[in-house]
Every structure is written in structure tokens, then in C-alpha cells.
Amino acid sequence: MATNGKKFPKSFLWGGATAANQLEGGLHEGNKGMNIADVLPGGKERLAILQSPGFDFQIDESKYYPNHEAIDFYHRYKEDIALFAEMGFKAYRMSIAWTRIFPNGDELEPNEDGLAFYDRVFDELHKYGIEPVVTISHYEMPVNLVKEYGGWRDRQVVTFFERYVNAIFKRYKNKVKYWMTFNEINSGLIMPIMGLGFAIHKEEDRYQPTFQAYHHQFVASSIAVKACHEIIPDAKIGCMILFAPVYSYDSNPENVLYALQEENLFNYFCADVQVRGEYPTFIKRYFKEHNIELDIREGDLELIKKHTVDYIGFSYYMSRTEKVDKEPQDNTQGNIMSGVKNPFLKASDWGWEIDPIGLRISLNKLYGRYQVPLFVVENGLGAYDKVEEDGSINDDYRIDYLREHIKAMAEAIEDGVDLMGYTSWGCIDLVSASTGEFSKRYGFIYVDKHDDGSGTLERKKKKSFYWYKDVISTNGEKL
Hints:
Blueprint: E1 13-17, H1 20-23, H2 44-51, H3 73-87, E2 91-95, H4 98-101, H5 112-127, E3 131-137, H6 143-149, H7 156-172, E4 178-182, H8 192-195, H9 207-231, E5 236-242, E6 246-248, H10 253-276, H11 282-289, H12 300-306, E7 311-315, E8 320-322, E9 331-333, E10 338-340, E11 346-347, E12 353-354, H13 356-370, E13 374-378, H14 396-414, E14 419-425, E15 445-447, E16 459-461, H15 463-473
Parallel strand pairs: 1-2, 1-14, 2-3, 3-4, 4-5, 5-7, 6-8, 7-13, 13-14
Antiparallel strand pairs: 9-10, 11-12, 15-16
Enzyme class: hydrolase
Keywords: Glycosidase, Hydrolase
Pfam families: Glyco_hydro_1
């Protein structure tokens, strides 16, 4: 194991990250309602649904829905949290399923069974000294709000969300000190089904409903920040974005400008509103060119300006390279987005380019722009893992990936970036959000569950489990 040579802060929050819809299961237990992920089938068909118009959010009995059972964290959370504690986690980034608290989303009173479940989870985490880092809405919108209201298109959803956040802040004010509002909020620009709670109609221009829904989310986010600061004064609440630095394919000024425009819209638009408290100047031209006219109510902009987030949580998996004149053969796949192939980078089993230096670049860009604390709340390698005859899982490729990204974080801290912590994505194997696969594994803990739904759900420690345990115990000094 190598020595890092760079220092992480003593208070650094090492841990792992998951989302309720991707690991809990317990579909109808505790009066839970149906959410968006519950109606998305597994396999490559899911990605097509997410990127195409016209999805109806209906269950098709002929298809397999992996999120219904997932890895059964709902019944096995004590076993899993004990494994997290054995690794030495300081923090566990998780989400609350909106549909456990308000099964349909528009009820007047919360569901006690759902509230009690998360009480038990938080108590179990605190038993081991693990700090919960909770995402309020992580691709778990109630399907009822999608079908009856059109998701975040409808201003009424702001009221339902306010009811939800007040319920969980009041219930967990003594148990949760780190919150985030909307997971990867900017992903709705590409994938509105999961982030904004609606599918674009086939005959519809996507721009107007997308940005109106964003305005409603920005208002809701500010309401949540205000409520959190009032109800839990010692808590911190952040936004959460998907960040992928955009490189120009070459030094052609047209490509440089195009890369800048893509980065502004995707990486900075949502963060500018939530961190700076106002719509950025570059979006005005974009709205004009796409005939977007927002319904902004009296007091909205003042609310957004006054109640900005305390920190930025973000996911980092890869960078993105762009040029104006793309050919189909130039394209590469990535985390819900595509760009052109970068000749200097290798790719994962799923075609996501691997760029540790890009994480250092991202941290410097974000901190330089906003000057608020940062938190890497997702980063990891989705890969095929093989269980050997002796039961071992030798995932050196994952260790190599994580080691280089942790080194990049250490360099960014040396650069002067204020970094709060690091929670590796999918610390235990779970359902892939974009493809509904179990075979796309991220975890330090292997779960015996497969793409066809078979498996015993047995947990096994991978080689990376022991490696990450050492990383945490030495505060990142030994990699």
C-alpha cells in the first residue's frame, strides 16, 4: 500500500453512498407508495426509456423490476451498517424514500411506519458513530405526483415537497446534521423522468416544461434550506449536482466556445441558482434563443436569493470532451451523457472514461467559482466482479480507480480547496440507476443478486473492503 504524502483534514468524512430506491426493496412494506424507480424495468430497456419521450409510468407485468426487492436493505440494514462500521465509515450518504413518508406525495399527514423505519436506520448508524448524510429527493418522486400533477411541471408539488421536508426535519432534527436537497439536480436537462418527474410528450418542445420545472425545484430547494436552518440550526444543507468538466477536443476556438457553453449550462446553471441565489447571466440568452418564458411568482426570486445552500455535494465519475461537428463514430458513453472520445483516457466496462485528474480540475473549478465547502458524495467504478472458487473477489481495478481519485482529492486540498468528505458510490452492490442492472457493481461489499433477479442476497467482502478500511484508518495517508 502506497503512502499518499498529502494530508486530509482530521474532520474529513470518509464513507460510502447509496440511494433508497436502489437498495432498500420492501416495495409495499410499511405502507410505502410507488415511486418513479419502481416503474422502471431492468436492463438496457431502461436507458432507452430514460432518453426517449412518451413513457407512461405504468407497470408491465411481463417485465422484471429490480428495484422492488433491490438488495433488501429494508430488512438487512443492521447487517449492512455493521459492515460499514467495520470499514470505519465516518459518514454514510443515503436518501429517504419520499414514498415511505408520504406514499402518494399529496397526503396531509406523514406515514408513521416510514418515519419509524428511518428512526431505526439513523439509530443504528449512530450506534457505530456514523454520521448520516441524507439526500431528501434522490430519483424517488411518488408516481402519484407524476400521474396526477405532471411532476415538477406543477407548482402544487412545491407545497407537497414543503410538507415532506418539514416532516423529516422535525422528526430527525436530533439525528441528521447533513442534508442535501435534490440528487444530481442538473441531470434533468438530459433525463427529466428521474430528476423532474415527467416524460416529455412526443409532440412537445422539451425546453419550456424542463426549465419551468427547474424553477419550481429552485423555489422548493430554498424553502427546504430555510426550514432546515430554522428547525435544525446546527445542521448543514447543500445542493447536489452531477459534475463532469467539459474539455474542448482541441484548441479550435469554436470547439473551446462550445465546450464552455456546454459546461455553463450543465455544470453551473443549477449550482449558480442554489449557491449564488440568482439566475446566471448566460441563461438569459439561452432562454431567449429557445423561447422559454418562466412563470415566476412574486417573492420567488427574493426567496431564492436569501436562502442559499451551505455546501455543494457532487458526483464525479468522468470528464467529457466536446467538439462542434461530432460524427457518430466519435461518440463515447458516460453518466447519462455522451461526448467525443478522449484519446488520452481509458474507459470502464460500461464505456465511462476514467480521468482522476478531472476530479482535481472539478474541485478547483467549483471552489474557485463558489468559495463554499465541497463534498464528493459519489465516485466509483462500475465493473464486472468475479467470485473466485475460494469465495474471494479480487477487485484490484476498483482499488486502482479509487486510489487515483483519492490522490486527486488530496492534491486539490493542497491547492486550497475546502473539501468536507468523500463517500464512494455504491459502497455495497446495488441496482444501477441508469440500466437497472446488478452486474454493474460498485461496492466494497458483494451482494449475490443478478440481472435476472436470482441470487441468495448473501454479502461478501471484496479485496477493496480491506483496502478502504486501511485508507480510512490512516485518514488517507496509506493508499
